[in-house]
Design brief:
Distance between the termini: 56 Å
Largest sheet: none
Order of helices and strands: HHHHHHHHHH
CATH class of the largest domain: Mainly Alpha
Number of strands: 0
CATH architecture of the largest domain: Orthogonal Bundle
CATH topology of the largest domain: Cytochrome Bc1 Complex, Chain D, domain 2
Strand content: under 5%
Length: about 200
């Protein structure tokens, strides 16, 4: 290969490398609406607040469904902890919701490091296997289930959510409703500790 051809080859490779870098940078650029999510759920979708779930890694289908439910009133915000969600989603377009869901789905989920009761977690594991394991596989850690991520979420958040499901205060699929409605407070507590134990 002569010097001219070598120079052209090196230039072509350099252009390709720069192009790939620019494409990658463009893909990692957060949607404009992401800032309002990051304030509570963390810059990378991993929450540092024990009453707020991490949203990184949750499938785009599930995340978008949550946002639509808040925006369209299928999920109410009577609880002060969720009131902000109705406010934040009220003006989101369908396109923005889909963009947000895809963006956070591409982030790495990291379970919360937290204390838990080992005995309660063991009880919760048995309840999970009986009631929840069919849809929430791998202990509730598999985003491909399109059933959210339960494993490693904050304990206070999980206790509140599970309590709302058990008392049928929160919209849920019929199959889930038949499994969880009527669980005792002790069962809910045990399940929450089981999910918190997965770190």
């Amino acid at each position: 290969m002569n010097k001219r051809m070598l120079g052209i080859s090196i230039f072509s490779m350099a252009v390709a490398v720069v192009s790939f870098a620019l494409v990658d940078e463009a893909r990692s650029e957060p949607p404009g609406a992401a800032k309002m999510c990051q304030g509570c759920h963390g810059q990378d979708g991993v929450s540092s607040k024990d009453t707020v779930p991490s949203i990184a890694g949750i499938s785009a289908f599930v995340h978008a469904d949550y946002l639509y439910a808040y925006r369209d009133g299928a999920r109410t915000c009577t609880d002060p902890k969720t009131k902000a969600m109705c406010t934040m989603t009220a003006k989101l377009t369908d396109e923005q919701i889909e963009e947000l869901a895809e963006y956070f789905a591409g982030m790495l989920y990291r379970p919360a490091e937290q204390d838990f009761d080992a005995d309660k977690a063991a009880m919760g594991a048995a309840i999970h296997d009986e009631k929840c394991g069919k849809c929430h596989t791998d202990g509730g850690s598999n985003p491909d289930d399109d059933a959210s991520i339960l494993a490693g979420q904050w304990l206070p958040y999980m206790k509140l959510s599970l309590s709302q499901f058990a008392s049928d205060e929160r919209e849920q699929p019929g199959a889930m409703q038949r499994k969880i409605v009527g669980l005792s407070e002790a069962d809910v507590e045990a399940l929450a500790h089981y999910y918190a134990s997965q770190q």
